[in-house]
C-alpha cells in the first residue's frame, strides 16, 4: 500500500526557483497533470512570483499573459488545483505540476484543455463539457 502524496514544503523551493530558466519575459511553461491518473489537464505560464505563491500556499497560481497579472486557479470558477508535487524538466525550462484538480480544469467546462484531435481530415472534439462555462463563471 502506498502512502498518500504530500505537498512540497515551501522552504524546499529555493533550489527549484534558482534552477528555473525563465524566458526573456520572465515566464516558464507549466503543465498541470492530475497526480493520481496522469491525465494532462492544462498548460499555463508561471513567473517567479507564481511559483513562489504556489509553493507557499499549496494551490496552483499562474501568470495570465492576457491579464498581465497573477491568476489563482479557481479564483472565479472554484475549480482549484491543490499542489501535490512540482517537477522541473532536464533543461530547467518547463515545469510539471502534479495536482489534485477540483472539478474541471478547462474554462470550456471540460476536465482537460486537450480535447481536440485530428480526425477524418479535420479537428474533432473528443470530449464534451462536463459543466456549462456560464455555471463556472456566472455569465
From TrEMBL:
Pathway(s): Amino-acid biosynthesis; L-histidine biosynthesis; L-histidine from 5-phospho-alpha-D-ribose 1-diphosphate: step 3/9
Source superkingdom: Bacteria
Cell compartments where the protein resides: Cytoplasm
Cofactor(s) needed: Mg(2+); Zn(2+)
Positions annotated to bind Mg(2+): 89, 91, 93
Presence of the UniProt keyword Metal-binding in the record: yes
Positions of transmembrane segments: none
First-tier enzyme category under EC: hydrolase
UniProt: Zn(2+) binding residues: 90, 106, 113
Domain Phosphoribosyl-AMP cyclohydrolase: 42-115
Keyword Zinc belongs to the record: yes
Cofactor-binding details, from the entry: Binds 1 Mg(2+) ion per subunit. Binds 1 zinc ion per subunit.
Biological function: Catalyzes the hydrolysis of the adenine ring of phosphoribosyl-AMP.
Family per record: Belongs to the PRA-CH family.
Quaternary structure note: Homodimer.
Protein name: Phosphoribosyl-AMP cyclohydrolase
Protein encoded by which gene: hisI
